[in-house]
């Protein structure tokens, strides 16, 4: 009798535990779904690329991640207070009205800094080793501690030469990081599927693999890809047609929307008009736009044509006017880039690729922001931005 009672009691406890576990799993699922809701056109994601602190020579993403984990001396570092600059940058990003941060993890960047940081590429690619995943995970957790969502961009081999191993590289990252902190995953960088067949082939192998992944944890994530700013309207239209043909299931059209084609001193209305011509084409996809990159590069002293901070502000006003004030079809804006992306130690290396950075530097380990940053913050935080732009400016 005693044995029967004990058996019945154990069965009762076991069943209650199963029911409690099921309840917890259900709650976790609901919570995950709530946390993973993507933005709509009425509430677009306002994001910023975060790849630099004070200069690309020692304070880019790869080196910063190492220094946050191992200390300022990692990667032959000679600058102190990396962690303080990192935290102050995140505070500035949050206070400027951004709710998303864009992080880029690239095989090529690991390769560039392998000699400086002591990386063995066998531990980077095709499978990112656990010790590197720990470094990446710590950085992700520091970002999300500020209440920021993450768009994670994954980039593989140069020239898209090895899609199979790129998939392995991406999977090793996604299985090894706290994926609950990632709300959008972007596969590939600067993919031009309608311009280059080898890039189309890469995308047609990689993106469906993840959209239909055999592991439910990965299949349930949000995926897009990063493209480029197309040089003319014919290219833009070909891109729209390609995406609609090959990926009709996508909920967003990935777009880049830089524009530096107008002469210096052009007005914001000029930029708005120029951008609208491309927006009209992208609207033909009948999808909200996921603008993974936009921004404006200033000129260096050596360049014959000089674009100034005033030109960058004019571009931003025109951008927001064309995308938000008149069209309202954008689900996400990610500007390139927070931080100072100049070569601080070797300024002669600044060429036609820099600077885009919205911080001019740091003082007392706090960002020195620019007029362009102030304009973006105004757009992010002011509900009457469009009315002010049209009536006052």
Summarize the structure in words.
This protein has one domain: Glycosidases (TIM Barrel), CATH 3.20.20. The chain has 13 helices and ten strands. The chain is an alpha/beta fold. The protein has helices at residues 2-35, 61-70, 82-95, 107-117, 130-144, 163-176, 197-211, 216-219, 233-246, 268-282, 309-325, 371-381, 385-392, and strands at 45-54, 100-106, 149-155, 182-187, 223-225, 253-256, 289-294, 330-340, 359-363, 366-369. Helix 2 packs across helix 5 (130-144), helix 9 (233-246) packs parallel to helix 10 and helix 11 (309-325) runs parallel beside helix 12. Helix 6 links the parallel strand 3 (149-155) and strand 4 (182-187). Helices cover 46% and strands 16% of the residues.
SSE topology sketch:
Layout: H1 2-35, E1 45-54, H2 61-70, H3 82-95, E2 100-106, H4 107-117, H5 130-144, E3 149-155, H6 163-176, E4 182-187, H7 197-211, H8 216-219, E5 223-225, H9 233-246, E6 253-256, H10 268-282, E7 289-294, H11 309-325, E8 330-340, E9 359-363, E10 366-369, H12 371-381, H13 385-392
Parallel strand pairs: 1-2, 1-8, 2-3, 3-4, 4-5, 6-7, 7-8
Antiparallel strand pairs: 9-10
Helix pairs in contact: 2-5, 6-7, 9-10, 10-11, 11-12, 11-13
